[in-house]
């Protein structure tokens, strides 16, 4: 059985059989459920009043595919995926403190920055952007984030 679901909708109660496969936003592919149980908790790890979001890619949670287009489309989907993880943890993009972005090609920075700044229009979080030519096949950007959980 294969079930497509965004990260925010996958819960421990969904895990019923180690033979099932599901879309795994943490590993960016379909995975055997038993493997996913090890990966999913790492998508957004809460500690005290912080959430540490592991590296996220721009695959669409319903299709498992990267969006058509280029860096802008993948950046948008990646940030939407992070947004879903943060909301599940009880916070939002408004509370992101630090972002690390890995770009396959640093020449993509203008397109990345255009989309990124639309998600963080004011009070942008601290950010590091690095070139990472060894990202997975088809992946143009990977983003990790640290956010606070408001009182």
Structure overview:
The structure is a single chain. With 151 residues, the protein is α/β, with parallel strands linked by helices. It has a single domain, classed as 60s Ribosomal Protein L30, Chain: A, CATH 3.30.1330.40. The protein has 3 helices and 8 strands. Helix 2 (71-88) runs parallel beside helix 3. Mean pLDDT is 77; it is low at 1-42.
Chain-wise SSE layout:
Elements: E1 2-3, E2 21-24, E3 29-32, H1 33-39, E4 44-47, E5 50-56, H2 71-88, E6 96-103, H3 109-119, E7 126-131, E8 141-148
Parallel strand pairs: 1-2, 6-7
Antiparallel strand pairs: 2-3, 4-5, 5-8, 6-8
Overall residue-averaged pLDDT value: 77
Uncertain spans: 1-42
What class would the helix/strand composition place it in? alpha/beta
Number of strands: 8
Q: Level of helix content?
A: 10-25%
CATH top level assignment: Alpha Beta
User: Main sheet?
Assistant: 5 strands, mixed
CATH superfamily: RutC-like
Number of H/I helices = 3
Count of domain modules: 1
**Do you know the CATH topology?**
60s Ribosomal Protein L30, Chain: A
What's the shape?
globular
CATH architecture: 2-Layer Sandwich
Oligomerization category of the chains in this entry:
single chain
Rg of Cα set: 15 Å
For the largest beta sheet, what order do the strands appear in spatially?
A: 4-5-8-6-7
Strand-residue proportion: 25-35%
Q: How far is the N terminus from the C terminus?
A: 40 Å
Reading the helices and strands in chain order gives EEEHEEHEHEE
